[in-house]
Amino acid sequence: MTLLLELKNTAVHYGKVEATRDISIKVLEGDIVTLIGANGAGKSTTLRMISGLVRPSSGEVLFEGNSITHLPPEEITGIGIAHIPEGRRVFPQMTVMENLEMGAYLRKDPKEVARNIELVFSHFKRLKERVNQAAGTMSGGEQQMLAMGRALMSSPRLILMDEPSLGLSPIMCQEIARIIKQIHAHGSTIVLVEQNARLALALADYGYVLETGDVALEGKAEDLREDDEVRKTYLGM
Amino acid sequence: MGFETFVQTFANALVLGSIYAMVAVGLALAFGVMQMANFSHGELFMAGAYVVYVLYSLVGLPFLVAVVAAFPIVALIGMLFERVLFRPTRGNVLSGFMATAGAGFIMQVLVGQQWGVGLMRSVVVPYKGSAEILGAAISWQRLVIIPATIIMVGGLWFFLKKVKAGKGLRACAQDPEAAVLQGISLNKMTSLAMLLSGGFAGVSGALMAPIIPVTPYMGHVYGVTAFIVVIVGGMASIEGAVLAAFILGFIHTFISTVYDSVTATMVGVLFMAIVLVVKPTGLLGNVKV
Ligand SMILES: Nc1ncnc2c1ncn2[C@@H]1O[C@H](COP(=O)(O)OP(=O)(O)OP(=O)(O)O)[C@@H](O)[C@H]1O
Ligand SMILES: [Mg+2]
User: Fold this and answer.
1) Scanning A71, B209, B244, B284, which has the fewest C-beta atoms within 10 Å of its C-beta?
2) CA angle A108, A112, A118 (to 5 degrees)
3) CA B248, CA B261: separation in Å to the nearest integer?
């Protein structure tokens, strides 16, 4: 398996506040890697650093072995990293179709884009029924589907997902989990950030546990599921 | 008010509403995409009037050519403002205010030095005569503003709803960070917004050049009016700006015809206050670009 993404000793500061301290993460092509941790552990910050929304104050981000540490976010999208932000962040007054078109903003070939839209509709039947609905009027679960569909429109190699299950009903969580599996089966590599550790560790191949800006623990998802500390703190067992 | 006066006043209101709309949509668009207000917007309007003064009155090009030329010329000034004023102050409202207000004064001084301050520049009316509509006479020079507005604002609507770059502008106005994550360059979009904003202000000023006195300070009142229109309309809403422009155009024209223009201005401001009390976000405050 080739190494797709690597974070080397990255730290992020917001002004003087240290959000993450010394994070090193490896993501192998084809894997689902999860980052779990409590509120404020630095999960979103880590994803935002990968997609270029914030800059690391030290350390390096490598994608396919090349440094992307200083690329602007729009170029990072262009090289194949899609970020589904925390809170979905669909364009509320644009229709479902327009949101998907924005996801394909950098794509040139309209035929490929049309094919991609069909692919998205095959993952998310509900979106197809609602192409002309304003995104802001959809339910939270539907908006999450749209945010995922929009990310797929750039035909990414790597998808960063920030708490896709946030605020969704248990049934909708299962639906989202099913779709993540389906997208993964289609060949995407995924970094999944979740508070719902049970869901995340069920889906993932490998996991990192973040605590106050550091990697506290890492390992195969099946091993983390059996870890006493993880079971007590994150799985509530 | 007799029927003739009514028709006359109605037509005048349509013309005034049109020009307000054309000036204000640019301000609303720029605010929507940048979340920054351009306090030199009135001076972009003034620049458009001077394009007509120079190209039409001094050089002798056809009026229509001068009006069309005002778009790219003032659009370039808008883009320049984006690059040197807005981009360095992005996210800092106070710096943006000082930078753009300052730039407005500088433009007034530069234009005054070049073409004089005291004497107003007279622009000979190119479209002479009046149209007879239901017994009222409306000068062609004013009347052309209505189709011009329909073309310009209709064109902007088409661009924002149907063209990819226009949709990118809307995406930036609705959620800049999410837009960047789709690969949309914020710098390109703010530049495009100021290009359009400048172009619209420029064409508005160009069309008004034969109708109102052309002076370095002529933009002030239009800039202030555009702000009122945009505040009433809902800051970042193009549709709100158009709606508010016509409401204020009608209020102003009818009241100044029946009473006087001071009363009209007062009622206009009162209307703004009432809208803001009843709906603090403006008429269409939740509609972004
Ligand atoms: N824009 C910001 N400015 C200042 N501090 C920030 C900013 N964003 C995040 N932080 C801080 O950085 C730390 C990490 O935040 P982050 O959002 O990455 O946590 P998280 O693990 O995603 O938490 P959650 O599960 O609540 O989403 C927190 O202490 C937070 O307060
Ligand atoms: Mg988070």
Assistant:
1) A71
2) 135
3) 13
Handedness of CA B173, B176, B181, B186 (dihedral sign): positive
Assign residue A12 a region (left: φ > 0; alpha: ψ between -120 and 50; beta: otherwise). Answer: beta
pLDDT at B28: 96
Low-confidence stretches of chain B (pLDDT < 50) are none
Q: Which two tokens stand for residue A213?
A: 């800006």
The pLDDT of residue B23:
97
Task: Kindly list the distances between the CA atom of residue B221 and the CA atoms of A172, B119, B208, B224, in Å, as whole numbers in the listed order.
Answer: 55, 19, 13, 5
Q: What is the pLDDT of residue A150?
A: 97
Cβ-contact B206, B70 below 8 angstroms: yes
| pLDDT value, residue B285 | 84
The helix/strand/coil state of B246 is helix
Instruction: Indicate whether this model's pTM tops 0.80.
Output: yes
- What residue owns the CA closest to ligand 1's atom 7? A14
Please list every residue in chain A whose beta carbon sits closer than 8 Å to the beta carbon of residue B184: 74, 102, 105
> ipTM strictly over 0.90?
yes
Task: Give chain B's largest Cα–Cα span.
Answer: 59
φ/ψ of residue B250, rounded to 5: -70, -45
Ranges of residues in chain A with a pLDDT under 50 are none
- Single-letter code of the amino acid located at A225: R
Residue B287, chain A, CB below 8 Å: the answer is yes
CB B229 within 8 A of CB B276: no
